[in-house]
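Supplementary notes for students who missed Thursday's class. We covered one full example, reproduced here. Read the sequence, then the structure, then the short commentary at the end.
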Amino acid sequence: MARQSSREIRQVRRDFERDLRRPRPSAATYRRRRLFAFIALVVALLALSAPLSSTLSGGPGAPTTANTGGHKSHGSGGPGTQTAPPTGSTPTTTTTERRTKPKKRRHVPTSFAVASTEMTLEEPSSASIETGTTASGTPVRTLPTLVLYPTTGTPGPGTNSAAPPATQDGPFPLVVFSQGFDLATSSYLGMMQAWAQAGYVVAAPTYPDTDPNVPSALNESDIVNHPADLKFVISSMLGAATDQSSPLHGLIDASRIALIGHSDGGDVSLALAADSCCQDPQIRAAVILSGAELSSFGGSYFTAGSPPLLIAQGTGDTVNVPACSVQIYNAAPDPKYYLNIPDATHTEAYISSGPMRDGVVQATLAFLDDYVKGKPAALNALLAAGTLPGGEALSSGPTAPALSVTSTTTTGTTVTTPLTNTFCQGA
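Structure (token representation):
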């Protein structure tokens, strides 16, 4: 071993003596140093364990297989894998999506206040059947049309034309009502108001040569032109619904159209629903009140089917006898319904206020709600109950029910007589 020089020995001695003179740290200083060292160790361990934890829990960079209804989700790297981010790129931070509360469905009323408006529709026409002319002299058939529609406000009797249309609750189905010969549309106001109050736009044209207010113009043979008039009314109502200046703007749902007609008006409505001469595919449902199949229209009935039908008939009707409604019903395809109104005459169940008309309104609304609005509960309930306020019976089957009429003898005895007349002379 080489011997150290005296100079090196003296340097070592000086360093040793200097260390002896340096003050030693206190016990508190040693404790602080140990604490800082421990914290540093913990931080280092946490930093090292983060990638391992992320890999084990399926975090970024780890293989994943997501179960979505039994199907594996596939990333761009192949089935069951997630492509790793490019080297040096910043890892994407996944955040939890904020949950949003589902929007509450707006409550649509089941009953509305009603307003009315009068429209004069001018249908282009040939001179042979015109009922008037335009300002420029063009021949037209003039169709005064009463329209009732739902409005805002509190439901109640009568109409309030000043109330705003219930546009926020629409659009509403369209019902076009056709009146009987020599009967004013105002005669049926009770039924029409009830339909509008239930959420329907109701249009009631006065057909040419049928208005009792103009007796000299009455001509029942003009009925052969009424199916074309009815089609024109429908198209005019749909046009008004797109006209921003019309009170009907935005109120009518063009995909939900129904027809209701009484007597001759029932014949016309049936023609658009089921006669090959004039059948309109837009019609979703039709209600025929004491109507008939009219051969004068031409064509044939039910060769191309029909929309759902409700046939209503009074057994005491001597104008359009029950056999006419039975003929319609038995020939019609399903779905179809027969409303028998015991002992009712040709008009009383539709015009006169009372239990009979209430029953007709209830049945027609239940039928329309099912086949136009898609709400079958009321119709199913009526079928189960069997009878309505005026003693009416609603049924559905392959053939019309057996019918009868009651009468009272001079001695006060009530006699029930089955109806055996099966001949319909037409309207």
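Commentary. Confidence is low (pLDDT under 50) at residues 52-97. Residues 27-56 form the longest helix (30 residues). If anything here is unclear, bring it to office hours.
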